[in-house]
Amino acid sequence: MNVYCRPEDLIIYEDSSVIVLRKPAGLAVESRRVTETDLASLLRRYTGESHIVHRLDQGVEGLLAAAKTKRAAAALSAQLTDGRMKKVYLAKVDGVIPAEEGTLSDWLVRDPGTNVSRIVPPPAGGERKAKTRPKEARLFYRRLSGDVVAIRLFTGRHHQIRVQLAHAGMPVRGDRKYGSAAGGGLCLAAVYLSFIHPDTGRKAEFRTEPRLFEAPEIPRSFFDLLQ
Description:
Layout: H1 7-10, E1 11-14, E2 18-23, H2 39-47, E3 51-52, E4 61-67, H3 70-82, E5 86-92, E6 101-111, E7 116-120, E8 135-143, E9 148-153, H4 160-167, E10 188-196, E11 203-207, H5 220-224
Parallel strand pairs: 4-10
Antiparallel strand pairs: 1-2, 2-4, 3-4, 5-9, 5-10, 6-7, 6-8, 8-9, 10-11
């Protein structure tokens, strides 16, 4: 899919160090196809130098942070690693939500040949050092309505939300790769992002709403869990 857009249309915040964008569904962050427009190339043309700090799957819409300097990129990447960068997603799901809220903890392995991740048993001693060793994945979810959940990520693995929700019996609607029978777009959106600004040292918060599906407002009590 080739999504045409201008970087100016995606930016919701910009200063001398940081850019926060709202990526539309269908736009790849970094595409392997030379003929396909991606976010990385759009930002390079816009700023001359950009460092995308984290990723969203091509079919996922929502908030994403990029840095305009190497120093800012290092600071934001450190926050992503140590958990100071907070991300919340909304998903409309098929199947049965197993509980009003809960934590999903699994081990994931990615198959680069098929671009699919799968859940496997916890690794034995030798596997932990292998190139394709399983990686721990953990998230917290809360039901907001009959088929919508809010999600707080504790780790950032390949297709993590999609794989873990499907394994729990509630695949993301429209996600045929992981078990949804529904057509249409992927009903998954990154709706909240916060981090400590690398220049000011102050907390920066950003929010948006999903455009591909309707969802209730996330209650304040859910955001309190991020503290």
